[in-house]
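Quick one: Rhodanese-like domain-containing protein from Chitinophaga defluvii, structure tokens please.
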Amino acid sequence: MNKFLRPAVVVLALLFAWMSGQAQQTVDVAAFEEGMQQPGVQIFDVRTAGEFNTGHLHNALQADYTKKEEFNERVKYLDKEKPVYVYCLSGGRSNAAAAWMRDNGFKEVVEMQGGINAWKKAGKALDGVKAAPQMTVNTFWQAVKADKLVLVDVGAEWCPPCRKMEPVLQQFLQTNKTVQLVKVDGGRDQEVMKAIDAIAPPTFIFYKNGKEVWRKTGIVDISELNKLAASR
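--- reply ---
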């Protein structure tokens, strides 16, 4: 081979390998379900919260792809080095989300062909089909009226940053045993969220004697929580 052509061939080979690694991976329901069993796999639902609450895949995280701010905030809590299995209702939104994720450094993104519609057609079960009753606003206010410090955690199991906060909260509560925890489901308890003006999970609010004394939306460091607890 001509010595001047050799570098060009190497560059083309590397480019081809890179493009192959970024290639679209769309699989049918059976292959998607099998892939979900891998250790460390991340299941990502890019439908709306309302759609998610009508039924979702087991252990799925959720971010509405049509809400760019929400999607961009939540997707950053996924591990780019681990497989992400993404789906929507029929495949359109998951295709766009997967393309964005590949362009932004995710190593392996797999889409489910046909989305939840195909999953249902195959007779597969969904989690969360039976909606639990909402917490009432009155129940919430009764819970935060305690004379002790109350930490309200507005979160959801499908919210990536909420999952990141779970071990932090557990560690905080172990250290601060007098603090009472009240959990508000960010997908279900919509009336309570409106009453306390909590727009999105995760949101953390401290109450003392029924009055709000501090709040933050997003990830909170345990040192900040400990400092706040000590000062109250």
